[in-house]
Amino acid sequence: MRRIIISTAAVLMMAIVPSVVMASAAAYPKGDGDLANGKKIFTEGKGTVPACNSCHGPEGLGDDNMGTPRIAGQFYTFLHKQLEDFASDKRTDTTMFIMNANAKGLTEQDRKDVATYLASLRKKGDTKTSNLEELKAAGITVGETHKGKSLVYWGGNDKGIPACYSCHGFNGMGAPPIFPMIGQQRYVYLVNQLKKWRDGSRANDPKGAMQAVARKMSDEDINNAAAYLTTTSFYSDGNLHTAYDPAH
Ligand code: HEC
Ligand code: HEC
Q: What are the pocket residues of ligand 2 if the criterion is a CB atom closer than 6 Å to any ligand atom?
């Protein structure tokens, strides 16, 4: 009996130790800004800058009607880069023409604070964003998830489209500090951005990496990849945690 208890403990130790090491090697960048100020900006805005939740939804999960992205639970490093890129006009918001003004209306510290707050909203477990059936019913063209899955996992070999997985991580859960979470992102936003990378109206990607990918994609490829990514899970069968689950 005693031997059984000891060996169970040993197995448990072996299971725990590597996962702790892995989690620290791929830490979730959460930022070190002021959470309280970040939350205030998100819910109340500041000066001429409207509250972020008025467009990005009460929980920051985006809105397909407005074409806004989910910003809650994205990596700090990526959110912060986007806000800096809007502030310096490296990236142009061609959807509502307001993110550039919003970013410029905040101080450098405010941008850090709000990015820190948004990153702090990452939760364990999958998050639902777009509902593909509702989008179809509203007349929006929706791609096929099984074809999208193939693109995300293996790419489009015949056209040289690389697997999204290779940069954005398993099912697009992100690979910090550079590659954003694109899984569980809003469908309409994903489609819009892929088209913007393709026609060059968004060009703030390091070394043009994303533009090169999107230029190889047809409208169908874009719709398919977006449909799969929106509805995907970050947990493979039997896997109860991901490298970027928050500790709490
Ligand atoms: C009037 C609506 C509106 C308001 C208010 C707004 N946003 Fe946005 N935001 C957008 C739209 C639209 C986009 C997508 C732009 C595009 O298509 O390129 C966006 C994009 C972003 C992105 C890029 C996300 C990504 O995944 O690349 C960030 C970050 C962001 N907003 C943060 C904020 C913050 C922080 C606030 C509050 C200070 C805010 N937004 C307020 C409409 C808004
Ligand atoms: C060679 C690496 C690489 C590959 C492969 C790649 N991406 Fe990206 N992707 C990036 C980088 C880097 C960014 C961040 C650019 C930035 O800083 O704004 C990005 C950003 C994006 C964004 C914008 C996210 C946001 O929130 O604004 C989308 C959408 C996207 N990728 C979709 C895809 C899809 C779909 C695939 C597969 C067909 C793919 N990517 C394959 C490197 C890659």
A: 69, 81, 151, 161-162, 164, 166-168, 178-180, 182, 190, 193-194, 204-206, 209-210, 213, 225
Cβ burial 5-26 (10 Å sphere, 16+ → b, else e): eeeeeeeeeeeeeeeeeebeee
The number of C-alpha atoms within 13 Å of 42 and in the hemisphere containing its C-beta is 25
Q: What is the pLDDT of residue 26?
A: 59
CA distance to 6, 61, 106, 158, per residue, from 74 (Å): 41, 10, 20, 32
Q: For residue 124, how far is its CA from the centre of ligand 1 (angstroms)?
A: 24
Higher pLDDT pick, 120 / 9: 120
67 touches ligand 1 (CB under 6 Å): yes
Does residue 205 line the site of ligand 1, with CB under 6 A?
A: no
Residue 24 scores a pLDDT above 90: no
| Count of beta carbons in the 10 Å neighbourhood of residue 107 | 11
Angle at 221 between CA 219 and CA 225, to 5 degrees: 120
Token pair 């909203």 is at which residue? 121
Mean pLDDT of 173-196: 97
**What pLDDT sits at residue 5?**
44
Whether ligand 1 lies within 6 angstroms of the CB of 181 is answered as no
Cβ(184) to ligand 1 under 6 A?
no
Q: Could you tell me which of 175, 173, 187, 180 has the C-alpha nearest to residue 145?
A: 187
* CA atoms of 195 and 191, how far apart (whole Å): 6
